């Protein structure tokens, strides 16, 4: 039997599970607005990092559909850094949140008693403070796939099928397909890195939103994009941090209808 040297979960535990590798134990506290995840052996010495994330708009006290929050959570998961999520209702931001987040945006993470906003800044700080495993993407590959999200939004919002937005988006996906074909399975080769952790939540939104609102899916000809998505979406880190499908659909509705 695997012995885990964790603090016992406090009363009100919803679930406690051991991963396939026997490495991860999850303690989901029922305390309103908070979910603590204690991950892995390395992280046990550290107390969980506090992170404010978007709350689900369909299920109270569940993680919502913010790709920037998932990017940060993925980075923590991949680095085995334990975290304590504080759910924020972005449609009715609480006072305590507005005091720590000047722009009223999530994610924000507390490092050394200071709340830090912006996923770019937060993921860099995580890299500096928790260097293992290294996740930095080399500069020449750091922007691979970075135009997919904006061109996906252009296509999603478009009401004119002949306005070229689909083709602009497909061109970006095709460039990404070629990159993964030559360099894959990840953006930087054999190992997952920061650029993948930034892009993957956006591809997840793309898949769900375009499937729902446009009955669209990635063409079979872009087989490396398809296998990349399957590969990243099936990682334990991704499954542990993904938004619910209904939240992604609801989250994009105002943009599609607007
Ligand atoms: N550049 C920021 C963007 C963060 C962002 O836009 N977050 C959205 C949620 S996905 C937000 O908090 N919006 C505030 C609001 O909806 O009022 C980052 O990378 O962290």
Automatic annotation (TrEMBL):
<dbReference type="InterPro" id="IPR036282">
    <property type="entry name" value="Glutathione-S-Trfase_C_sf"/>
</dbReference>
<keyword id="KW-0216">Detoxification</keyword>
<dbReference type="Pfam" id="PF13409">
    <property type="entry name" value="GST_N_2"/>
</dbReference>
<dbReference type="InterPro" id="IPR044627">
    <property type="entry name" value="DHAR1/2/3/4"/>
</dbReference>
<dbReference type="InterPro" id="IPR040079">
    <property type="entry name" value="Glutathione_S-Trfase"/>
</dbReference>
<keyword id="KW-0808">Transferase</keyword>
<feature type="domain" description="GST N-terminal">
    <location>
        <begin position="56"/>
        <end position="134"/>
    </location>
</feature>
<dbReference type="InterPro" id="IPR036249">
    <property type="entry name" value="Thioredoxin-like_sf"/>
</dbReference>
<keyword id="KW-0560">Oxidoreductase</keyword>
<comment type="similarity">
    <text>Belongs to the GST superfamily. DHAR family.</text>
</comment>
<protein>
    <submittedName>
        <fullName>Glutathione S-transferase DHAR3, chloroplastic</fullName>
    </submittedName>
</protein>
<dbReference type="InterPro" id="IPR004045">
    <property type="entry name" value="Glutathione_S-Trfase_N"/>
</dbReference>
């Amino acid at each position: 039997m695997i012995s885990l040297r964790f603090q016992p979960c406090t009363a009100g535990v919803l679930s406690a599970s051991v991963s396939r590798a026997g490495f991860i134990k999850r303690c989901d506290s029922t305390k309103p607005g908070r979910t603590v995840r204690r991950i892995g052996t390395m992280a046990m010495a550290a107390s969980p990092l506090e992170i404010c994330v978007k709350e689900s708009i369909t299920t109270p006290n569940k993680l919502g559909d913010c790709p920037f929050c998932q990017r940060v959570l993925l980075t923590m998961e991949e680095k085995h850094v334990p975290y304590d999520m504080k759910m924020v209702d972005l449609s009715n931001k609480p006072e305590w949140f507005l005091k720590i987040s000047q722009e009223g945006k999530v994610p924000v993470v507390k490092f050394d008693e200071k709340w830090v906003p912006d996923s770019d800044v937060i993921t860099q700080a995580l890299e500096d403070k928790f260097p293992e495993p290294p996740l930095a993407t080399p500069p020449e590959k750091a922007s691979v796939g970075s135009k997919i999200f904006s061109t996906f939004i252009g296509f999603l919002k478009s009401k004119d099928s002949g306005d070229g937005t689909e083709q602009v988006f497909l061109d970006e996906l095709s460039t990404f397909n070629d990159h993964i074909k030559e360099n894959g399975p990840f953006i930087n080769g054999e190992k997952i890195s920061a650029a993948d952790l930034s892009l993957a939540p956006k591809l997840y939104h793309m898949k769900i939103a375009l499937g729902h609102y446009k009955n669209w899916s990635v063409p079979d000809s872009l087989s490396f994009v398809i296998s990349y998505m399957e590969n990243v979406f099936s990682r334990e880190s991704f499954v542990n941090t993904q938004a619910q499908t209904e939240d992604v659909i609801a989250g994009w509705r105002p943009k599609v209808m607007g």
